[in-house]
Design a protein that fits this description.
- This protein has one domain.
- Helix 7 (103-119) runs antiparallel to helix 8.
- It is mainly alpha-helical.
- The longest helix is centred in the last third of the chain and has 52 residues, at 246-297.
- Helices cover 76% and strands 0% of the residues.
């Protein structure tokens, strides 16, 4: 199976074109941090938590699981297994860590699959599955993952999306069972970090740098769970009461999110260190999306009808 995947990449490499590379680079960008968070934020600020919380939990939990699987399988990138494979340069710089499963493909499947599953509209699966498939193809076309890496990502996403939707639905039906999400997120984050501490690392490697993606995902999951609890308990954001101000909510919310993701690591690195700044940014994004900005928007809400 491994050799079959590498053979396919070699064949794909021979048929790449400049136009195709540019197109799939744009596609693959939507599987990266800012766009994933922007979609989640817009979803929450416009429609509320019904769909956003399910998709967000699937994305955060699945991201952590994907990172753990990467470090458990330890499958090198395609160009390390075969020097004849030459990935597209602009895609390679962001392809760090192990190869299986594909992080971009899993993130796309987790977020958009979570949206479609939570929305419960049959027709929505058509564009969602097309987009998930296109993102997976982009990773193969650009030479940074094999078809096996992408297929593994899709298989991982299915039970995670199902579990996230089920967990959030249960807490909506019985608010006293919020511990399911909070406790599950804490347990999963602790397990992921414990795995990285237990796993042998290459001689001379820095522990936190070696497992930085797992720690980043754990920080994001814990922050999401805390934000979910704070918003549901204290903020109680209702976008329907914003009226036309929802346009302002989206425009300003995405702008600030962009500024955060472009500058927060650089600004906090002198105090927190490179890795600490990465974890701080990962934790800050869910807090901004679900707590800080919705709290600030409360002043624009229309009074509830009597």
């Amino acid at each position: 199976m491994n050799e079959l995947g590498l053979n396919f990449l070699r064949w794909m490499q021979e048929h790449r074109t400049p136009g195709g590379e540019e197109f799939f680079l744009r596609v693959t960008e939507w599987g990266e941090g800012f766009w994933l968070m922007a979609v989640l934020g817009v979803l929450f600020w416009v429609f509320g938590g019904g769909v956003a919380y399910r998709a967000g939990l699937a994305l955060m939990a699945g991201d952590l699981l994907s990172s753990v699987v990467k470090n458990a399988c330890c499958i090198p990138r395609p160009w390390l297994r075969d020097p004849l494979i030459l990935p597209v340069g602009d895609a390679q710089w962001g392809a760090f860590g192990y190869s299986f499963p594909s992080g971009h493909a899993s993130s796309s499947a987790l977020l958009w699959g979570g949206i479609a599953a939570a929305a419960r509209r049959g027709w929505l699966w058509i564009p969602v599955l097309a987009w998930i498939g296109l993102t997976g193809v982009s990773r193969v076309y650009l030479g940074v993952h094999t078809p096996v890496d992408v297929a593994g990502s899709w298989l991982l996403a299915v039970p995670v999306v199902w579990g996230a939707c089920r967990a959030v639905r249960r807490t909506e039906q019985a608010p006293a069972q919020a511990w399911i999400v909070l406790g599950g997120a804490a347990l999963l984050a602790a397990a992921g970090m414990a795995f990285m501490r237990w796993r042998p690392i290459p001689e001379g490697a820095d522990l936190f740098r070696f497992g930085r993606d797992t720690y980043r995902a754990a920080a994001a999951l814990l922050s999401f769970a805390a934000a979910w609890h704070l918003e549901r308990t204290y903020v109680r954001f209702d976008p329907a009461r914003l009226g036309a101000y929802r346009i302002v909510a989206v425009a300003v919310g995405v702008l600030v999110l962009s500024l955060m993701m472009g500058n927060l690591r650089r600004l906090t690195a002198p105090w927190l260190g490179e890795n600490g700044a990465m974890y701080a940014l990962a934790a800050a994004c869910p807090m901004w999306i679900f707590v800080v900005w919705p709290f600030l928007l409360k002043g624009l809400e229309k009074p509830a009808p009597r």
